[in-house]
Specification:
The complex is a heterodimer. Chain A is α/β, with parallel strands linked by helices. Chain A contains 18 helices and 16 strands. The mean pLDDT of chain A is 93. Chain B is globular and about 55 Å long. Classes of the chains: A alpha/beta, B alpha/beta. The complex binds flavin-adenine dinucleotide (2 copies), iron/sulfur cluster (2 copies) and FE2/S2 (inorganic) cluster.
Amino acid sequence: MDVLKRIPVREQDPSERIKNFDEVCYGYNLEEAKLEASRCINCKNARCIEGCPVSIDIPAFIKEVKEGNIEEAFQIISKYSALPAVCGRVCPQETQCEQRCIRGIKGDPVSIGKLERFVADWAREHGIKPEPPKEKNGRKVAVIGAGPAGLTCAGDLARMGYDVTIFEALHEPGGVLVYGIPEFRLPKDTVVKKEIENVISLGVKIETNVVIGKSVTIDELIEEEGFEAVFIGSGAGLPKFMGIPGENANGVFSANEYLTRNNLMKAFDENYDTPIITGKSVAVVGGGNVAMDAARTAVRLGAQVYIVYRRGEQELPARVEEVHHAKEEGIIFKFLTNPTEILVDDNGWVKGMRCIEMELGEPDESGRRRPKEKPGSEFILDVDTVIMALGTSPNPLIASTTKGLEINRHRCIIVDEESMMTSKEGIFAGGDAVTGAATVILAMGAGKAAAAGIDKYLKSKR
Amino acid sequence: MQGTYSYTIKKKVQLSDAIYLMDIEAPRVAKNCYPGQFVIVKMDEKGERIPLTICDYDRDAGTVTIVFQAVGSSTRLMAQYEEGEAFRDFMGPLGHRSELIDMPREELLQKKILFVAGGVGAATVYPQVKWMKENGVKVDCIIGARSKNLIILEDEIRKYAANLYIATDDGSYGLKGNVNDCIKDLINNKGKHYDIVVAIGPMIMMKFVCILTKELGIKTIVSMNPVMVDGTGMCGACRLTVGNEIKFACVDGPEFDGHLVNFDEAIKRSTMYKSEEGRMQLRKKEGGSHHHPECEIHEDDCKVNS
Ligand SMILES: Cc1cc2nc3c(=O)[nH]c(=O)nc-3n(C[C@H](O)[C@H](O)[C@H](O)COP(=O)(O)OP(=O)(O)OC[C@H]3O[C@@H](n4cnc5c(N)ncnc54)[C@H](O)[C@@H]3O)c2cc1C
Ligand SMILES: Cc1cc2nc3c(=O)[nH]c(=O)nc-3n(C[C@H](O)[C@H](O)[C@H](O)COP(=O)(O)OP(=O)(O)OC[C@H]3O[C@@H](n4cnc5c(N)ncnc54)[C@H](O)[C@@H]3O)c2cc1C
Ligand code: SF4
Ligand code: SF4
Ligand code: FES
């Protein structure tokens, strides 16, 4: 074994996987995991931990894997993360834990994410649950939104003994994990549902179909239902559109709609009733994880797919693994290209998309070079379906129905960075609702910080 | 249709051939809902999310009334549910309550208001007319339908409207003609005057009412019912052009200023899944082969998930 190289992970062959929604990556088996774990040199001041937003004790769990004590490894991870099988799959490890790994200086960093995934999958397959909470203290806390932020906050509070209820607007808990990220990257029944069941097994109640701000307000939860503190983890679900002509044509979707139909409503499965329009030739506009997911979904539904992105390949914000998989699956990338108009036929359906080529100019506030149009370079992309994956912003519903809750100009809820308390006493927030669209693990980190903040606040109140 | 779900059907009444009324046990929705709002119903694990207007509510009993027309596969299936059975999901209330409810009372009492209901739109109009009466506001109402047997909630609305007028296309009941003929009759022949029209029904009806009321210079409120998925502002499926802006009907509406709505676009968008739906039905029957030999729609017109 070459210690500079990571143990490769087995994957479904691209030519096969474009025909199904099964998971692309098979993950390690015990033997592979132990081998990969043996590459970790158990650093004293492990830099990998600094790269993890929830500070998982990475060397400690990897050491257990190395020795074959997988249950031990799971209990270590569970102290820090309620959703390890999810994070092991979807964390952008290359910019987090793995980026800091000392092994990465000379060779490949240790596959921390894949090892985490292995441990969580193994624990699930062997029926191992996180340790249940100590005594209950009977104090009620409400959590809004059952995404990663809300689930983490609820799980941590339950472990501390609180009586926690999560209120979720949709009919299933999970947030983006169920409606956004596709099955082939994050299996719903085997992975997401099971990790949510683990949270429930800690004593957390989940009430679905409750839209806070409509079904009941935060003020009512406190005044009428006896909740002493509230955590808002409502995410950033509002899709953006470009504002170009033709955008309301039949066959133009937000990525959220397209992915929700397919993931939450399971349109790809004949036994489910919700329809989805696939088209023959699909353009996905954008370059993030959401764009990759929409594009790879469209491929599996049988379409020829383009990703249209206004900057260059280096600037793609998506995880490297997803870009790599997308290319393997035959998706055509149109870099430095921006749509200017969607062409519509007489019946109101998309019949093409006018685009213009771009070039990169001076860096903008984000440090990335600003794209500008190349005059005279317009062309028409022959597509019949367009999916807009341009980013999302927080839903104003909660802020507009909760007196005294301050938001910034991006509609993000303002919090104290340490306690995660909002401008309103006893109300805390975290995740995408505070940061704007970010990552699963950052949302979880925020949920954790808020659980600690809530605990401190409630203890000081009595 | 097992009874393990929690949103129990307390009452079911068939109002006409294909229109049904149900009282559903949903205490959270019943507690905080108002006329103008809607719910999303998901019948079972595999069902679609179906938006339906809140037609009435009983806060004490914790029930919400829905009225639906069995038009497609999902609503037809819903019609087969019986009292005592339950739906898996019942989410709401969604959308804004009717704009008139929030109008200052003195102002509202000054206004002459005409409600215009088309077909199953009567279910959306009914709670508003009832609210008006309970709050001391006298309003007139027109119910229009193709034929007498399609008129629903007539007695209920009659109880609360100052005047109720009926119009049927075939003349089998009330005035022979459409709702616009009836509006013109009231204004031209019966000396009526209105400051506000609230028109709720099929999009095509709302479109034509708006064309007429624009000519007549009467402010008109419509309640839009585009295709929806989540109903919380997350997917954008329900987007409409209103004035020069894009609006999401589920969170910005469902009521809008009818004179600003781009109905042609909305009508086109509302047909988006019609062919799709038909194909899915075929697929189910034939089990895998997606194209029925007798289907008149061919590959190019009909985009389908294969
Ligand atoms: C398609 C897609 C792919 C992604 N891929 C990755 C990836 O590979 N790696 C990664 O790290 N991140 C990825 N992300 C981002 C990541 O999923 C999010 O940053 C993360 O889910 C945010 O968590 P959250 O808990 O803050 O919010 P969400 O996951 O958005 O959950 C919020 C929940 O709150 C509910 N809610 C909202 N309003 C209300 C209300 N008024 N009342 C009750 N409930 C409400 C929503 O229904 C939802 O369930 C992706 C995002 C998308 C959309
Ligand atoms: C805010 C709102 C309030 C409504 N209130 C009522 C009501 O009180 N009573 C009533 O009978 N109907 C109401 N509707 C319409 C009702 O939701 C549709 O009739 C129903 O979804 C059609 O489903 P189907 O599969 O039986 O019919 P089909 O005609 O077969 O539907 C085909 C497909 O189109 C989609 N679809 C078609 N029309 C609509 C629509 N208007 N909204 C969402 N999806 C649609 C569905 O996804 C379905 O898959 C309302 C719609 C909205 C948006
Ligand atoms: S949670 Fe994410 S960042 Fe932390 S160790 Fe696991 S994969 Fe790395
Ligand atoms: S930095 Fe790398 S080698 Fe060091 S402990 Fe972390 S994973 Fe192991
Ligand atoms: S139904 Fe999804 S945004 Fe309105």
